[in-house]
C-alpha cells in the first residue's frame, strides 16, 4: 500500500514514511490509495482471536514493505501487554441492544493508548532500522499527550515535546504528563486554547527548516498509523456481536474525528456497519456541518469533556477527500477558504455521501450529566463524560432503530474526571491504584506564550536530533 496527500501536492510515500511524517508537506493528510478488503470469511475468522493477533492481521495490508509486515506481530504483541484487561477492549451491555466498548484499560486510562502504544513501537523500529533520531511534537487537549508520553518515555532515539492548553486540562490529565521523570519528555503549558496549540503544531510542520533541523515526527490524531490502529476494535467488537452476519452501529465521542474515521475505514474494509454516529459536546462543528453543509469553526467552549473541546476536527479532511471523490483541487479550495474566510461549504454530492453513512448529534452539558446519572441508576455503570455523549447519541439512535445493536465507544475511565462524576451521581470513582501512586511525584512543565517562534526555539534548544 502507498499513500497520497489529500491536497495532492506532496510526495507519495510508503507507510513507514507516513508514520514519521504525520502531516504532509502541503498541509494535507496522508490517505491510502485504497482501503484493503477483508472478506466475510476472514471477518468471521476473527472470532476468539486474541486482540493483538487480530490487530496484526487487520493492519498488515496497510504496510508497504514486507519487512515491516514481518515485524508487525511482535509489535502488536508488545503494545498490548501493558493493558489491565485480558480482552484489551471488552464490551459491556448496559441496556437492550446498547453496548459500551471499554477502551480505557491502557496505561493512561484513555482510548488513545490503543493506538499510541503501537505507534511507539512502530516508530522506534523504523528509527533503529534507519539509524535516525526523531523529535516528537504533539498538541493535546488532554489525553493524547499522556498517551504519547507513556508510549515514548525513555526511548533512546526520540525526544517528546507535548503542548497543552495551560489551565484547560483536568488535574489527572496534567499530572499524567508532568510527573513523568524521563529526560526525553518535555511538557509545555501553552497560554492559549487547544486549537492554538494545534495551530502552532501545524505551522511547525510547515516550517521546513525547523522540521529538518529537529527531524520532526508527528503523533497527533492526524497520524495515519493511529487511525489504522483504531480500526481494529471496530472489527473485534463487531465480530463479538455477530459480524459479518449481523450489522451493528457505532456511537463515537468525537473531537478531532480520528476515532470515528477509523470506524469509517473499518466499514470500507468490509465490516457491516449500519450507521456511524458522531457524538459531540457543545463544540458542535461536526453536528452543524452535517446538518447545514457549512463547515465553520466557532470559539471553543470549555466543557466537562475537555478532550472533545475542539472546533477544527483535523481528520475530517480525510473523509471530505473521499466524499469529494478524491478531488485534490476541491480539498485545496475548501481548506483555503477555511484559512481565508473561516468556513467552507460542503458541495452537495459530498454532503449526501457523508450523510449516507454518518449521523451526528451534539450533547449539551446538562444532558451529559443526566446521562451519567441515568446509566448509573439503570445499569449500575459509571460513564465518563466523553463516553456519556456517545451513550446519549446511541440511545437516540436506538429510539429510531431498536433492532440494530449500537456500540458506544467508551473513550476514558471515569476516574479521570472525578468532578463531573460526583456532580452526576454524588460520589467520586476511584483511580486504579497503580495510576494513583504514579501521579504523586513532582510536576515538571514550562509555561510558554502562544507564539510559534518561542515554541520552536524551546524545542530546538533541547532536541537531541538538532544537536547532531
Ligand atoms: C481524544 C479523545 C476523544 C476524541 O477523539 P478524536 O479521535 O479526537 O475524535 C474523545 N474522548 C476522549 C476521552 C479522548 O481522549
Estimated radius of gyration: 21 Å
Assigned CATH class of the domain at 91-107 and 227-425:
Alpha Beta
**SSE-based structural type:** alpha/beta
The major beta sheet can be summarized as: 6 strands, mixed
Total of DSSP H or I helical runs spanning 4+ residues? 21
Average pLDDT level: 94
- Please mark out the parts with pLDDT under 50 across 5 or more consecutive residues, or reply none: none
CATH topology of the domain at 91-107 and 227-425: Rossmann fold
Secondary-structure arrangement, i.e. CATH architecture of the domain at 91-107 and 227-425: 3-Layer(aba) Sandwich
Strand order of the largest sheet: 4-5-15-10-11-14
Helix content: 40-55%
- The 3D shape can be described as globular
Percentage beta strand = 15-25%
Modified residues (N6-(pyridoxal phosphate)lysine): 112
InterPro entries: Ser/Thr_deHydtase_PyrdxlP-BS, Thr_synth_N, Thr_synth_N_sf, Thr_synthase-like, Threonine_Synthase, TrpB-like_PALP_sf
Domain Threonine synthase N-terminal: 2-80
Organism: Methylocystis parvus
Key features of this structure:
single chain, 468 residues, alpha/beta, Rossmann fold, six-stranded mixed beta sheet, five-stranded parallel beta sheet, 16 strands, 47% helix, binds pyridoxal-5'-phosphate
Amino acid at each position: 500500500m502507498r499513500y497520497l496527500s489529500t491536497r495532492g501536492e506532496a510526495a507519495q510515500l510508503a507507510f513507514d514514511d507516513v508514520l514519521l511524517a504525520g502531516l504532509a508537506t502541503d498541509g494535507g493528510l496522508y490517505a491510502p490509495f485504497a482501503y484493503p478488503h477483508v472478506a466475510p470469511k476472514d471477518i468471521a475468522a476473527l472470532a476468539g482471536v486474541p486482540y493483538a493477533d487480530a490487530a496484526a492481521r487487520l493492519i498488515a495490508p496497510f504496510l508497504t514493505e514486507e519487512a515491516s509486515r514481518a515485524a508487525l506481530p511482535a509489535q502488536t504483541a508488545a503494545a498490548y501487554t501493558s493493558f489491565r484487561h485480558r480482552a484489551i477492549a471488552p464490551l459491556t451491555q448496559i441496556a437492550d441492544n446498547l453496548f459500551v466498548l471499554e477502551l480505557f484499560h491502557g496505561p493512561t486510562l484513555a482510548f488513545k493508548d490503543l493506538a499510541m502504544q503501537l505507534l511507539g513501537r512502530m516508530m522506534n523500529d523504523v528509527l533503529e532500522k534507519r539509524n535516525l533520531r526523531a523529535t516528537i511534537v504533539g498538541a493535546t487537549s488532554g489525553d493524547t499527550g499522556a498517551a504519547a508520553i507513556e508510549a515514548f518515555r525513555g526511548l533512546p532515539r526520540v525526544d517528546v515535546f507535548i503542548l497543552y492548553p495551560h489551565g484547560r486540562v483536568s488535574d489527572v490529565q496534567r499530572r499524567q504528563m508532568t510527573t513523568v521523570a524521563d529526560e526525553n519528555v518535555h511538557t509545555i503549558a501553552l497560554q492559549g486554547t487547544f486549537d492554538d496549540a494545534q495551530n502552532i503544531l501545524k505551522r511547525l510542520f510547515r516550517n521546513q527548516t525547523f522540521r529538518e533541523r529537529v527531524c520532526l515526527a508527528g503523533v497527533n490524531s492526524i497520524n495515519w498509523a493511529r487511525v489504522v490502529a483504531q480500526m481494529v476494535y471496530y472489527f473485534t467488537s463487531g465480530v463479538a456481536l455477530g459480524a459479518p452476519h449481523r450489522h451493528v452501529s457505532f456511537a463515537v465521542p468525537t473531537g478531532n474525528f480520528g476515532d470515528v474515521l477509523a470506524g469509517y475505514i473499518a466499514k470500507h474494509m468490509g465490516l457491516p456497519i449500519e450507521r456511524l454516529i458522531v457524538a459531540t459536546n457543545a463544540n458542535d462543528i461536526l453536528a452543524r456541518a452535517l446538518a447545514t453543509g457549512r463547515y465553520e469553526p466557532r470559539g471553543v467552549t470549555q466543557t466537562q469533556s475537555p478532550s472533545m473541546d475542539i472546533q477544527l476536527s483535523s481528520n475530517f479532511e480525510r473523509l471530505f477527500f473521499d466524499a469529494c471523490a478524491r478531488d485534490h483541487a476541491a480539498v485545496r479550495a475548501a481548506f483555503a477558504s477555511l484559512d481565508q474566510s473561516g468556513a467552507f461549504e460542503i458541495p452537495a454530492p459530498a454532503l449526501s455521501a457523508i450523510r449516507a453513512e454518518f449521523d451526528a448529534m451534539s450533547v449539551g452539558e446538562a444532558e451529559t450529566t443526566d446521562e451519567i446519572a441515568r446509566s448509573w441508576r439503570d445499569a449500575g455503570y459509571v460513564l465518563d463524560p466523553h463516553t456519556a455523549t456517545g451513550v446519549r447519541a446511541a440511545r437516540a439512535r436506538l429510539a429510531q432503530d431498536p433492532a440494530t445493536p449500537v456500540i458506544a465507544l467508551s473513550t476514558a475511565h471515569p476516574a479521570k474526571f472525578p468532578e463531573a462524576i460526583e456532580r452526576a451521581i454524588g460520589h467520586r470513582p476511584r483511580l486504579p491504584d497503580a495510576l494513583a501512586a504514579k501521579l504523586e511525584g513532582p510536576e515538571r512543565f514550562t509555561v510558554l506564550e502562544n507564539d510559534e517562534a518561542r515554541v520552536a526555539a524551546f524545542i530546538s534548544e533541547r532536541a537531541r536530533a538538532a544537536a547532531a
